[in-house]
Amino acid sequence: MFGLALVAIVAAIDAILLLVLGMSSSEYTEQFGGQSLQPAGLVQANLPLLVGGAIATVGVVGVASLFRTISLKMGGGQVARQLGGTLVESDTRDLKRRRLRNVVEEIALASGVPVPEIYVLEQESGINAFAAGYSPADAAVAVTRGALEKLDRNELQGVIAHEFSHVLNGDMRLNIRLIGALFGILLLGLIGRRVLMHARFGRSNKNAAAVLLIAAGLMIVGYIGLFFGRWIKAGVSRQREYLADASAVQFTRDPDGIGGALKKIAVYSEGSLLRTDTEEVSHMLFGDGQRMMLFSTHPPLPERIHRIDPGFREEDLDRLRASILREQARAREEAAPEERPVRAARGGVFDVRGMIEQIGQPGWERMLAAAALAAALPDNVRRAAHSTEWAPEVLFYALLDPVEDVRERQLNVLAGRMGIDSEAQVRALLQSAGPPRAEQRLPLLDLAFPALKRRPPDFVTRVLDTVKALIETDGRVDVFEFLLARVISQHLWESQSPDTVRAAGRRKLADCRDPALRVLAVLARHGQTDPAPVAAAFAAGCSALGQESPDSLPDPGDWVKALDADLPVLDRLTPADKQRFVGALAAVVTHDGRMVPVELELLRAACALIHVPLPLLTTV
After folding, report:
1. Cβ neighbourhood burial of 341 (10 Å; 0-12, 13-18, 19+)
2. What DSSP string runs through 534-545?
3. pLDDT recorded at residue 142
């Protein structure tokens, strides 16, 4: 099939060359004068060029395949890392990853092969897995986060046994070689796509039409390569998937393990689909990585289930779906411990100079305050913040309004956008820990972020949209809601594009006087209600900034729009001027010797959005 694919691609390339040559030849021009074009003569006249084109095509395919094969020489771990896999360390304390490692080690020892590297595809919520490598010595086994979270131990064991079958039967080596071999026949289509995307030709360029025609032809060739590539992978993979399913039953002596995993793929909406491009690795996966109408690399899911469980009926999936929902509800009830009293962590007197000096190097007393603040969080809320599954619900919980009527409307919005499971989890946190306290909300944001960023980007987008909807439920935006929406959006974006982040710029504070004064005014108005203390706080900030206080306090109007417009400008300040600006912000909130939560939250938001890590502060 690979030879046939190569012949078809060479024939297509030569046909494109003939078409281009015919368009540019004198014979093509004479055709419009009444003389007919003779293809045989055109072929004979350009035979050396066509032979050269065929040789060049075969050379490009061969070199591309060789290059891709060399890039995979590091073995299965390289494939897993290229797909976004995270290595599971041998001393991991995460219970689910510990369970995964135990299962892999047990099957490896039983098989008499070295324990492979173990990876988790954190960004994938579908149930899937693969084994990659050239030999058991350099093998790697990877599972998706969805498989880790949705499968019980027996089902996970069935999936891992399926992948070990690929290791022991030699499929793994064949699969990784297929990645390299098939890359060459897909490359030409990629080249054509890039040429069409980036080509810019003037009208006077006589070769523009010919070049564009070649680019379009290369894209057509790419689809020929895609067709044959999928055909080859389907021809190789399907029977070996049946073999691996049977081997998994032989390994575990439990058909319900792998059978249950396949049934869960059929039940869950994500199935086994992955968000990453699986064109190269689709034949290596436990289940289909993408929807394909033609030449799927895996047998139909019902057929795989039926071969393992001959008594399987389609209606069994409905009962499984209902059972999963009941188990989720029971797990939520069991996860909610008794309500525990929460004590607020409170700290001492503010020292502006000391606070500035501790940016980037917090002192020991800050460490103790952080430990006390973390210890004051309810146990179930803290555990949920560390959990990849529950981290979004912790953010939603932190946004709940203290007014019960508004809170109920927020929960209804949550159910409509994220589903009743998400709403139930937030209600469980609310029932066990009560409404979130003001001093708890910032630590919850910090604790939940690492787990949240491991979720797939499309899911994170849903979370951010839901956050916005919850904020807008009561028709206003408070400071913490502003902080949560802006900071979490910035952090998540920067975690996806770290090379684009700039912690400082080259602008001078003198050139940003008006934006700086508007931000100081917003902060002063939030910390005080009476005009005189507001003016005093603003004057303290101007003095720290080295600016004379204006005759009238700037009125930014909509403070949210003002901060959204001004903070990105101030983010481009030089490091020295950022230090002065942060000192001015601190002078505003500490001018009266105390700080209320709203001041702390707004100060935290302003510093975070200009890339200044503020040390831990607590209200007094």
Report:
1. exposed
2. HHHHHHHHHHHH
3. 93
Cβ neighbors of 341 (< 8 A, separation 6 or more) are none
Task: Write down the pTM of the prediction.
Answer: 0.52
Residue of 155, 163, 241, 439 with catalytic role: 163
The tokens for 235 are 């021809």
Q: Residue 356's pLDDT is what?
A: 54
Is 516 found in the same domain as 457? no
Total domain count, the chain? 2
Domain residues for the domain of 464 are: 377-474+491-498
529 in the same domain as 464: no
Phi, psi of 400, rounded to the nearest 5 degrees? -65, 135
List all residues 6 or more positions away from 202 whose beta carbon is below 8 Å from its beta carbon: 208
Locate all alpha helices (DSSP H) within 340-418, ordered by sequence.
Answer: 352-357, 364-376, 379-386, 391-398, 404-418
Instruction: Mark whether 279 is an active-site residue.
Output: no
480 and 601 in contact (C-beta within 8 Å)?
Answer: yes
Mean of the pLDDT values across residues 191-211?
57
Per-residue confidence (pLDDT) for residue 2, from 0 to 100: 76
391, 470: one domain: yes
**pLDDT for the residue numbered 141:** 93
CB 111 within 8 A of CB 135: no
